[in-house]
Amino acid sequence: MSIKEMFIENYCPISADRISFTRQQGSDFAKQVADDFNPLHNIDAKRFCVPGDLLFSIIIAKSGLHKNMTFDFSGMVSDDVHLTFPQEIDESFDIKDDKDKTCLSVHVSGDKTHESVLINALTKAYVDFSGHTFPDILVKLMADNSVMINPARPMVMYQSMSIDLHTLTAETVTLKLAKTSLSIEGKRGDAWLEFDLLSNDKVIGHGKKHMLLSGLRTYEQETIDAMVNQYRDSKKNYQA
User: Fold this and answer.
1) For residue 120, what pLDDT band results from cuts at 50, 70 and 90?
2) Which residues are within 8 A (CB) of 189 and not within 5 positions of it... i.e. 6 or more apart?
3) Is residue 177 within 8 Å of 72, Cβ to Cβ?
4) Are 197 and 122 spatial neighbours (Cβ–Cβ below 8 Å)?
5) From the centroid of its chain, how far is CA 63?
């Protein structure tokens, strides 16, 4: 399998052990692959952040897809930071920067594949789902719990993600939301999004995404509507 068969190669060269990202690469991946218009991924963002889903995509393209994988994020990655990625992962690996700071920890178990068709299909299905977390999923979850994030500083941080696959032989993958939950403690909320992975309408695995919501306050529909409209305007302007 050639690494060139991985569509992720269009967004950064993944053959090297140490990889860094420009703002353009991170922003293009967020908008073109994930359909994610989080302002943190804008090229001119003051606190620019490389999409966590880009790091996930590189890992499974480079190190292979295991039946059981957990990704724990421990810090935001800015542009031009060099990260060390493994060629393979035995049980666990910490993705670190030049200052030896861990940005992401990966834990794996079970069989592994480098089959590009499955890896590309899974990557695109998950990243598309993940990129639509706001507003498609989070707004309803916040409304149901009568809370919302701070509109002046909307902080939603990617904490972790896990996938458990029953098979590694599928060629098509779709993703379906199964369950959502939000636990609140003061101004902090932990959101869990559980999903099923399907191939030809048959469930081939499950997954879970965990996010931290900070600066929570009482839900206001008018304010949420303004946030959603601003988000959608950003998307329209980009696509114009």
Assistant:
1) very high
2) 145, 147, 182, 183, 212, 213, 214, 216
3) no
4) yes
5) 17
Q: What is the pTM of this model?
A: 0.91
Residues 6+ apart with CB under 8 A from 236: none
Query: Do the beta carbons of residue 206 and residue 155 sit within 8 Å?
Result: no
Q: Which residues contact 118 (CB under 8 A, 6 or more apart)?
A: 65, 168, 169, 170, 171, 173
Q: How far is residue 39's CA from residue 136's CA, in Å, rounded to a whole number? A: 16
Tell which residue, 125, 153, 138, has the closest CA to residue 40. Answer: 153
Which whole number is the average pLDDT over 79-83? 89
**pLDDT tier, 80 (very low <50, low <70, confident <90, very high otherwise):** confident
List, in sequence order, every residue forming a beta bridge with 104; answer none if it has no partner.
73, 95
Residue type, 122: L
